[in-house]
Amino acid sequence: MGKATKATKKFNRKYLKDELERRRNNKKAQQLHKKRELKKSKRGAAGDDGADSDQDPATGIDEVDDLAEFAASTIGKGAEDLSKYMEADPENGGDAGDSTDSEDMATLLQEDDSDDEESNGSGSSAESSSGSDDEMGEDEEEAFKKQLEAMKETDPAFFEYMEKNDPAALKILKATDEAGGSEADEASDQASGADSDAEMAAESKSAKGTTVTVKMLNQWEHEIKHDHSIRALKKLLLAFYAAAHMDSENEGSDTVYRIQGMNIFNKTVSTAIRAAPQAFAHHAPVVDGRVQKKERARVMTALIRSYLASLVELLRQMSDTTMIQYLIKECERMVVYFGSHARHTRELVRELLRQFGSESADDGVRISALLTLRQVAARAPAETVDMALKGMYLTYVRHSGVKNMASLATIQLMRNCGVELYGLDGAASYQHAFVYVRQLAIHLRNTMQLRSRESFRAIYNWQFLNSLAFWTEVLATYCGDLADEQPQLCATLESLVYPLAQIIMGVARLVPTARYFPLRIHCLNLLLRLSAATGIYVPVLPLAIEILESPEFLARRPVKSTLKALSLDSHLKAPKEYEHTRVYLESVLESVFAILADAVAAQSVRIAFPEWIVPAALQLRRWRKRVGKSWTRFSKQLQGLLEKIDQSTRLVQQNRANVDFSPGNLAAANQFMSSTQPEATPAGAYAASLRKVRAQQRALLLEAEMAD
Predict the structure, then answer these.
(1) Number of continuous H segments (helices) and E segments (strands) in the chain
(2) Mean pLDDT over the full length of the chain
(3) Are strands 257-258 and 210-211 parallel, antiparallel or unpaired?
(4) How many Å apart are CA 607 and CA 655, to the nearest integer?
(5) In 214, 359, 463, 500, which residue has its Cα 20 to 30 A from 67's Cα atom?
(6) Residues 6 or more apart from 579 whose CB is under 8 A from it?
(7) Residue 688 CB contacts under 8 Å (≥ 6 apart), including other chains
(8) Listed ranges 35-49, 128-142, 678-692; the one with the highest mean pLDDT
(9) Lowest-confidence segment of 18-32, 155-169, 668-682 by average pLDDT
(10) Residue 610, CA distances (Å) to 111, 593, 667, 676 in order
(11) How far from 444 is each of 241, 266, 430, 603, CA to CA, in Å?
C-alpha cells in the first residue's frame, strides 16, 4: 500500500473511527447468544437505522469519499505537477507534505454550504443518541465472552459441539483474538468490505471528472459578479486549476473538472482572470496596501492561494510570448495578494527570473518581468529582496555569453534591468555588490598566482567580463548619473569604485599580448564609463598608449589579408586567422583612437588639463612620427585629435586666467568650468563625432548579421 494522503488521513481522523465503532457494535450484537435474541434484534434494528443514515446524503460521507479521492489524486498522485509550488516551506516546518497549503486545498475542496453543515450536525447527534445502547451491548458482550472462555476450559466437549453446530456464536472469540493484530489493517478491511461499492463509484466519478462548458463558465461568472457567490468562485477556480495543469504529465486527469478544446481553455482562463480578482476585491479587499478579509477568512485564504498557484503554474506552462506577457501583467495586478503568502511569492520570483533569462523571450517579456519583479521586491520582506537581487545577477551572468552582435543588445537590456532592480534597497545592494566584487577579485588573484592556461580561462571569458560590466554600470549609475536623486545609495556604494577599478586594470594587464587587445579595449571602455560618471580619475591613457607602443605596430610589419573587417565588440581575442593581419590591427587602432578621444574629452574641463595632457601628447606625437607612414589614415586621424587637444588646452588656460582662488582651494578648483559640458569643448565635440560614426557602423553590422 502507498502512503496515505492528507485527505485520507483527514477522513480517518474525523469520520472513520465513529463509523467503524458503530459497525463493529452492530456486528457483535448479531453474534450474541440465542438467549439474548430479543435484545440482539433491538440493537440490530438500531444498527440498521444507523446503516441507512450512512447512505443519507445529509451525512456527507459519500461526498467526503469523493472529495478525498480527488484530493488524493490532486495532492498525492499529482505531486510531480504540484511540487513546483508545494515544496518544503521553511516557514511552515520544512516538509511539504505537512505544509498548510494541503489543508488549504482540502478547505477549497470541502463543501461550504450551511445546510450541509447542519445536516452533518444532526447526523452526529443521532449517532450520539444511540451511544447508551451500544455501551450496554458492550458490557453484555464482555460477560458473554467470559462465559465462553470458562466453558472452553471446564466443558471442552460441549465447546467442540458448539463449534460444529453453532459456529456463529463463537465468532466473538475469533474477533477478540484478531483484535490484537494491526488496528489499521482491521479498520481498512472492515471499511473496504462495507463501502466497496461507494468507493468504486467515487473513484469512477473522480477519474472521469466533469467537462467544463461555456454555459457553466457563464453561469459561474454571473453568480460571482451579481451574487458574490463563494461556491461559484470555488468551482471556477477548480476549473482554472484544471486548465493550468493541462500540459502536466497526467494531463489534468487528477482534477474534478476537465478542459476539452482550446476554446474552452481560453474561455476558462479569461473568465478566471476576469472574475477572480473582482471577487477577491469584494471578499478580501486591499486597504492601505494590506489584504482585509471580511468574512470566511479561511475559505478565502484557500481560494486566493489556489488562484495564485494556478496563475504561476499557467505562466510556467505557456510558450507564447504574448500570453506570457499578459499573465505577467496579471501577476503584477495580484502583487498585494502575493505579498500575503511568502511561499507563492518565492515561486513567482523564481518564475519571473526564469522568464527574464529565457532565450525565447523577447524584450517585452523581459521588461514586464522586471517591472513585476520590482513591484514584488518593493513589498516583500528582506529575504525575498535578497532572493530577487541574487537571482537577477546570476540570471544575467548565466545568459551573458556573447555569440554575435544581436546578443550584445539582449545582454545590454538585461544589464540595464538588473541595474534598475539594484536601486531598490541600498543596504541589500551593497551587500550583494561587495560579495560578488570580492569573488571577482579572488578569481583574479588566483589566476595571477597560478598563471596556468586553465586559470586564464577562468578570467578571459564573457561571463567574467560582463560581470565587471554589470557592477561598473551599477556604480556609474548610482554614484554618478543618479547620485543627486539617491545620495544615500551613492554614499553606500561609492567605496566599491576603487576596488572595482583595480580589478578591471588587473584583468587588462593580465596577458599583454596582441591577440588579447580586444579584451583590453573592453576593459578600457569600462574604466572610461566608471571615471566619466563618478568623476573619479582613473588612469586610462597609459593603458591605451601601451597598445600603440606594442611590437605589432613598432617592430613588425602587418600581414596583408583579404579578410572582411573584424568587429571587436563581439570578440575577446583575435581569431587565429586574423592574428598579425592589417585588417585586425586597423580595427584595434580605430578602437584605441576612440578611447583616446573619450579619455581626453572627459578631462577637458578640468583645471589641470593643460599640464595633465602633456605626457600623453608627447607620446602620441612620437608614435605618429615613427609609424605614421605605415598607417596613413590613422596618422591623419591622430593629427586631428592632437589639434583638438591644443584647442581645448587654450580654452582651459583662458578660463583659468580669470579665476580668483589659489590652487589650494580644492572646492573651488572642483567647480572650475562646472557650467561647461565636456561635449562643448573642441576635444569633446571631436569625441562625440567619433562615437556617432561608431554607432552607425555597429548598426550596419547588426543589420548585415540579421540579414544573413
Answers:
(1) 35, 4
(2) 79
(3) parallel
(4) 9
(5) 214
(6) 514, 515
(7) 601, 679
(8) 678-692
(9) 155-169
(10) 85, 20, 19, 17
(11) 50, 53, 21, 30
